Amino acid sequence: xxxxxxxxxxxxxGYNIRALxxxxxxxxxxxxxxxxxxxxxxxxxxxxxxKIQESHNGAFPIRVVSRENxxxxxxxxxxxxxxxxxxxxxxxxxxxxxxxxxxxxHKYYPMIADDDKLCALVFLAMRADGSVYGTNPxxxxxxxxxTMYRARHKAEGxxxxxxxxxxxxxxxxxxxxxxxxxxxxxxxxxxxREYDAVYIPEGIxxxxxxxDSITANLYKWLKNNCxxxxxxxxxxxxxxxxxFAYRWRAARQYYRFSSIAGMPLWKGLPKGVALAAFPFGMAxxxxxxxxxxx
Length: 294
What we know:
The protein is α/β, with parallel strands linked by helices. Helices cover about 40% and strands about 20% of the residues. Strands 1, 2, 3, 4, 5, 6, 7, 8 and 9 form a nine-stranded mixed sheet that branches. Helix 8 runs parallel beside helix 10. The mean pLDDT is about 95.
């Protein structure tokens, strides 16, 4: 059993999937497998992956699953079903691993291995110039849950959550009708109610948004998957253990998207937060209509 499953969901990334692979080839620690789900790509992604497999020297296992397009969250759920590693690290096809990424995971794994209340090691994301992506509140390895890391410690930006596979499997991404996407923090918040993670102030990958990535087109994805989006914010909005300001921001976003999704505006929701946030959420929705036309 490998220590890490490096999981890559790929859709129309024939032009850059090899760069990700080459970063994995350079890993100083080869105790991992690379699992790729080709999610119905219509370009040469599958052909490029087949070329990679044919020329691969076998230093680490590669598995490629190709299927019709079902979306990112379905890919993640299937990846969890297929993963053989003790740990599960999602590395997107437009990101690049640092050469010592698996080595660092191996180094810090003993900190969480035998603690049943710890679910993950969380590393920093880096920019191409070597700077940290977002803000990092911790200078030493620190125990914290996913939600309080952002709600109380004001952290911002993407991170590399290297999760215990057996824990992650308990918190798969829910399905909302025909929607193919929901915000990851829906699952992170659910996990945070039961588990802590250890935040490591070192970077293991370089983040780079392709022009066709979800991040680069985020509003479209949120709007087109509005039930999952609104549900993500609703669960923060109604979580009374969180700071008021954090819940209020989530409530604004809930009202921004719940009107599209046809979800409740008032019934059963915390009145104080709702009354404070409702006008701001509606104002954001009006701005969306003006800016995006929908």
